[in-house]
Amino acid sequence: MEGKRESSGPNHLLQKLRDFTHSIVEDLSHSRSPVIYIHRFRNYCTDISGNCYCIHDSFKGVEILTLQRECHARRLAILLRVLLIVQQLLQENRHGSKRDIYYMHPSVFREQSVVDRAINDICILLQCSRHNLNVVSVAKGLVMGWLRFSEADRIFNCLNHPDTAHSIPVHVEEVKDIISVADYILVVEKESVFQRLANDCFCKTNRSIVITGRGYPDIQTRRFLRVLIEQLHLPAYCLVDCDPYGFDILTTYRFGSMQMAYDTKTMRLPEIQWLGVFPSDAEKYSVPQQCLLPMTSEDRIKTEAILNRCYFQRVVPEWRVELQLLLQSGVKFEIEALSVHSLTFLSKEYIPTKIQGRSFM
């Protein structure tokens, strides 16, 4: 398998699936042990020289599965079992979640993680994204603002009530007829901040689209964001907590996740700009000492690991400066700490000022 993507329509995938299983049956019928080559991908490395090319959609190694190893034999058996379910979904034009697949054979799979790995392996082998397999999950993200779109026969009209939350659609590939009069897209890490902005009627006052993935974003939220950015050509900003988990969420939006590095080309959002909150904001906005939390040893280890990712040197060196400041300060704080000035400080002062500053950069 090569890193290059091919057609991923249902009929094409079904044919590739049949070819794959046929080759395994052929090997077994001739007393040969099947050998499966699974390319491995990564979207970053720890070479901070800036000379690597991890951002590109190319494989970084090959994992070889054979029946000669017991753990590989079980893994191959699970892979074929999940492939059979995927084939059924595609043939019947139905959708199922990873959890649905697990509960079809819980005694065989034993735990959800083996199903998750099998689905990732199948995506790599068939050179497709997860949604092409009709494997979906309930979207956990929320959206509000100056936006109107449709999904299948359902119309999402946020224009009449821009500060009312709507769930991100599950079938993002069916989203169409997108209309917006927004000036920008704002992504916020947490639902609590999203609700704060809704209560303050942020979108009514600011022509924007606000989205939250409610923590680490799911696939649908990231895909939906990509559709909006590509079709509306709007600037996109991201607001996260000033801690290593906030930074990790930010980089998941911008650069994709290592778990789905095989699909980085379609999942990353290079247009995302970091709006805050920055470690330097603690002094700039006079965040009181009681709102600053001491960094734990786990926080420091995670921050140092994030700092070692190659894209901090090659793509966003200015982010690296702020991360280093986080380590030096030894303290972290949440977005809500800015509310110490006033309950509406975030929506009426902090975000508009930051956005305005960005627009003149």
Written overview of the protein:
The chain is of the alpha/beta class and 361 residues long. Helix content is 44%, strand content 16%. The strands form four sheets. It has a six-stranded mixed beta sheet with strand order 6-3-9-8-10-11, sandwiched between helices. Helix 9 packs parallel to helix 12. The chain starts with 9 loop residues before the first helix and ends with a helix.
Oligomer: single chain
State the major sheet. 6 strands, mixed
What pattern of helices and strands is seen along the backbone? HEEHHHHEEEEEEHHEHEHHEHEHHHEH
Beta-strand segment tally = 13
Helix content: 40-55%
Mean pLDDT, to the nearest integer, reads 88
What is the distance, rounded to the nearest whole angstrom, between the alpha carbons of the first and last residues? Answer: 43 Å
Low-confidence stretches: 1-6
Strand ordering within the main sheet: 6-3-9-8-10-11
Strand content: 15-25%
Number of helices: 15
Class from helix and strand fractions = alpha/beta
What's the alpha carbon Rg, rounded to whole Å?
23 Å
Shape: globular
